[in-house]
Amino acid sequence: MTSHYSDIYRNWESDPESFWLKAAESIDWIKPPSRAFDAEQGVYGRWFPDAVGNTCYNCVDRHADRGRPGQAAIIYDSPITGTKRSISYSELKQDVSALGAVLRNHGVEAGDRVVIYMPMVPEAVIAMLACARIGAIHSVVFGGFAANELAKRIDDCQPKLIVSASCGIEPNRIVEYKPLLDEAIHLANHKPEACLIFQREQSVATMIDGRDFDYGEELSEAKVLGQTSECLPMKATDPLYILYTSGTTGHPKGVVRDTGGHMVALKWSMSAVYGMEPGDVFWAASDVGWVVGHSYIVYAPLLHGCTTLLFEGKPVGTPDPSTFWRIIEEHQVAALFTAPTAFRAIKKEDPTGKYLEKHDVSCLRTLFLAGERADPDTISWAEDRLRVPVIDHWWQTETGWAIAGNPVGLGALPVKKGSPSVPMPGYDVQVLNDEGHGVAAGTLGNIVVKLPLPPSCLPTLWKDEDRFHEAYLAEFPGYYKTGDAGFIDEDGYVFIMSRTDDIINVAGHRLSTGGMEEAIANHPDVAECAVVGMNDTVKGQVPIGFLILNSGVERGNAVIEAEVIKLVRDTIGPVAAFKNVVTVSRLPKTRSGKILRATMQKIANKEAYLMPATIDDPAILDEIATVLEAR
Ligand code: COA
Ligand code: AMP
Q1: What is the mean pLDDT of the chain?
Q2: Would the pTM of this model clear 0.90, i.e. be above it?
Q3: Which of 39, 87, 312, 336 is deepest in the core (most CB within 10 A)?
């Protein structure tokens, strides 16, 4: 198929208003938009300013009521617990509607926040949709974060109610969520009025009288009593959810997603970017705690009338590297979307792909990768084994959908390995130097998007417009700063090379090294520290911490290093994968006292570096290299 990408991109460029109004026709509105964009509202304008609709209605009711009641909306496959379950659109509607009633019984109203801290079970998706149904704003927190991180999010968004579960299950242990939740509520200044706890048989939690309520019991009771909830009319500009993501400090950024633009962009992406037809099975092997999970486990596949696959497991070890292939075959998955790290993990355990030979995966049409740079080796390995197009695409929590990709639904463009291909309609992607001037094709610089951002992108940060401005808009006036560095080649292909801030990408998870340094600084024996990202063959990057201890500390370095590892795990969570730490006597700094983290990172990765012109004492770099070699 010839690609229509260039025509479609030009259509958007020449008349964005008509382009997005046309895309909006695929949504069932209560009041359709009379215009697509109002440049006068919000920080950089707002999408579909006069439209009214409901996201849950478009994801659930319209399929349950018209055309797809018996089709599976969700297939839950959990090799880690040995459970499988299929939920039709009609069943999903009943559950979501009843859970909406349960939330309302607890006093949750439109605009109230609900934190969801849950493992990968259908009840998490049902809770998200129930919030959308009654107009409550959900904020899902990934289960791999510790109590302290959960507490920060509770304090920031001030939920009326928290939905959680008794436990999550990791290959090596049961993760008791309830004690983490109790600790988080203890640490937070804001206290929710109630918690709805989904009890799992693997570990049943002790409930607190008067505060904790049983999710399963309340849902069943509401169904027996025939309690339902209506899809409330929401303004397109009303927030649907808040999703916290790492910023340059330990304080996460509350990315706000609005209702209308999100529906329009995600629905458009399912056919154009992913080439999906309603009824197809779509599998995003991520977690509902991340943006990929929000957009492509929950909202986009359901908006499009697809079946979404909810996977509770890992690419390896649950039970072996054949899990992905078994699931694709068994559930006839048409498209798989995951992070390259998952394929690196499979490749490491099964380099020749012998586990794949036992499965017929001919139903798979495309593999999509995102979340981190897709290295050419991993792409080639996947192409050779699966014999389907392997499509890298680049996006962020802030955007909710691809900034650059290779839109297979419009006809795929030639793949250039190492590039997520070309900007999607809606995004005018440019590369600027530090002075804010455009650079020539092929020249490395700051990747920015000319304002306005397209539908689905964040209109602001939750109750922090100043930070939104300062973090994204101030440095390059008129542009959104992505925080990524890279270049655009002469054919218009975008290449993402690194971050321009202290964010690192560990197994597709976005983490702030600044946040880790803040946690380490709380250790009483640590005088100073620096954390940088070190290359890792499976996870892409892992953090490594450098410590300077207070003088006079007599306990051995190894003891303190182990305490620091535990401190980061307890403060941020196991997801930080903070397992490497070394003690040094000095840190390299500029003459004005700034730690030279970028140079340290190059040394840790055994990469060549230029001696920083402003370095105070070059000998410290050799000391760092010597300590690392001795590890
Ligand atoms: N609840 C509690 N703990 C969790 C958790 C959760 N939901 N998810 C992960 N963790 C823990 C893990 O148990 C692990 O703890 P450990 O240090 O005790 O082993 C730690 O957090 C790191 O987890 P993870 O990043 O998943 O690493 P892993 O070594 O267990 O697995 C991969 C490595 C590559 C297999 C895994 O990262 C993976 O499947 N990635 C797929 C890509 C992905 O989901 N990306 C998300 C964005 S698209
Ligand atoms: P998150 O907000 O967690 O989705 O992380 C977004 C960041 O992950 C981006 O700013 C990039 O640094 C990185 N990223 C995501 N997708 C890609 C990709 N396809 N190629 C390179 N980097 C990516």
Answers
A1: 97
A2: yes
A3: 336
Query: What is the rounded radius of gyration, in angstroms, for the C-alpha atoms of the chain?
Result: 24
Mean pLDDT of 427-433: 98
In this predicted model, what pLDDT tens digit does every residue of 285-339 receive, in sequence order?
999 999 999 999 999 999 999 999 999 999 999 999 999 999 999 999 999 999 9
Q: Which residues pair with 31 in a beta bridge?
A: 52
Beta-bridged to residue 164, according to DSSP, are: 117, 197
All structural domains of the chain, each given as residue ranges with its CATH number in brackets, are: 88-232 (3.40.50.980), 507-629 (3.30.300.30)
538 lines ligand 1 (CB under 6 A): yes
Place of tokens 């981190």: 372
Looking at residue 191, its pLDDT comes to: 98
The answer to whether the CB of 390 is under 6 A from ligand 2 is no
pLDDT of residue 576: 95
Distance 370 CA to ligand 2 centre (A): 7
The answer to whether 443 and 35 are in contact (CB under 8 A) is: no
The rounded Å distance from CA 247 to ligand 1 centre is 20
* Of 422, 424, 408, 433, the residue nearest 496 (C-alpha): 422
Nearest to 311 by CA among 116, 139, 59, 124: 124
Q: Is-cis flag, bond preceding 459, omega within 30?
A: no
Q: What is the pLDDT of residues 460-472, one digit of tens each?
A: 999 999 999 999 9
Q: How far apart are CA 196 and CA 84, in angstroms?
A: 23
The model's pLDDT over 157-180, given as tens digits with 9 standing for 90+, comes to: 999 999 999 999 999 999 999 999
Please give the sequence-ordered ranges of beta strands (E in DSSP) within 49-144, or none if there are none: 52-53, 72-78, 83-88, 113-117, 137-140
Instruction: Name the DSSP letter for residue 595.
Output: B
- β-sheet bridge partners, residue 168: 175
80 lines ligand 1 (CB under 6 A): no
